[in-house]
Design a protein that fits this description.
Length: about 100
């Protein structure tokens, strides 16, 4: 009896992008630009907010073109410990003098 194969469709396996960039970051940068424009109500703030939005969208599109999952990779990287001490097994319990050697 042969194994049954199931095709993985592209539509179910695409990254969650909006306007070419990471969805949450694009929306958050748009929200920041919108808040800047409508809280100041000045021409300079409007120009700066639009330029901020255009630059953020450009940078986020470049980031998504390089790696669509880059934000998730960075957040996972931040959760890792900065130092993993050398041990023979994760279940080995060092004595106090051994633990002081590795700090």
């Amino acid at each position: 009896m042969a194994l049954r194969t199931v095709a993985i469709r592209r539509s179910g396996n695409r990254p969650n992008l909006f306007m070419g960039g990471d969805r949450e970051l694009v929306m958050f940068s748009g929200l920041l630009a919108f808040a800047l424009i409508f809280s100041a109500f000045e021409l300079q703030a409007t120009i700066f907010g639009i330029m901020l939005w255009i630059f953020a969208l450009f940078a986020l599109r470049l980031m998504a073109k390089h790696d669509p999952q880059l934000r998730q990779v960075y957040l996972r990287h931040r959760r890792y410990k900065s130092y993993y001490p050398a041990r023979s097994t994760p279940f080995y319990i060092n004595t106090q003098t051994q633990a002081e050697q590795y700090r």
